[in-house]
Design goal:
single chain, 190 residues, alpha/beta, Rossmann fold, 2 domains, five-stranded parallel β-sheet, 10 helices, 5 strands, 9% strand, globular
């Protein structure tokens, strides 16, 4: 069975730990990640505004993302934008990219900005990242924990302990995922 395609909104690519987890899950075959250059520019612009000292790292991160998942970039969606209706017109490009990518899910913290009435005709749903991750946890908890272990192993400069990783996931806004990781701490911490 072909993994589900999910369009990642800029706000889920902004937090480094969540971006890393979502990309590792895609790279590991859990789902097919999609995003557009406009989405890339949005998370990069917002991160650069908050952390200008990360400018060089942000560019490297974008290059790594594109190399790791070369088919993720959605193009050719722009002509659909004017015909779409959403509460925030600034989000129409996200919906247009999801439609063009034939995605089934838009992963976003702002689910209210993507009402079912606007998404259902296109076979789409909007999911909070915590809900999105819970689907993988429910299906293959051991494999999900193996991905978490890979993500944590990359955090070496400076090293991040399991407790720090849990706090980051909680702070990002992933309470259910954090609870699962806390319950299964002995299965993924180094």
């Amino acid at each position: 069975m072909t993994p589900v395609a999910a369009l990642l909104d800029a706000n889920v690519l902004y937090p480094a730990a969540l971006r890393d987890l979502l990309l590792q899950l895609a790279f590991s075959g859990f789902y097919r990640a999609r995003w557009s250059a406009e989405i890339e520019e949005e998370w990069k612009r917002n991160l650069l505004a908050a952390r200008p000292e990360l400018a060089a790292k942000i560019e490297r991160t974008q290059a790594v993302m594109r190399r790791a998942i070369p088919d993720a970039l959605v193009t050719g969606y722009e002509s659909q934008i004017p015909n779409l209706i959403l509460p925030d017109i600034g989000d129409r490009h996200v919906l247009a990219a999801a439609i063009t990518a034939e995605a089934e899910i838009i992963v976003t913290f702002n689910t209210k900005d993507f009402p079912a009435a606007a998404l259902t005709p296109h076979g789409l749903v909007a999911q909070h990242p915590d809900v999105f991750l819970q689907g993988f946890i429910a299906e293959t908890p051991s494999l999900f924990l193996a991905v978490i272990k890979q993500c944590l192993a990359r955090l070496v400069s400076p090293p991040v302990a399991a407790a720090g990783y849990l706090e980051t996931m909680r702070r990002i806004g992933l309470p259910e995922t954090t609870a699962f990781l806390q319950t299964n701490l002995v299965r993924w911490q180094p």
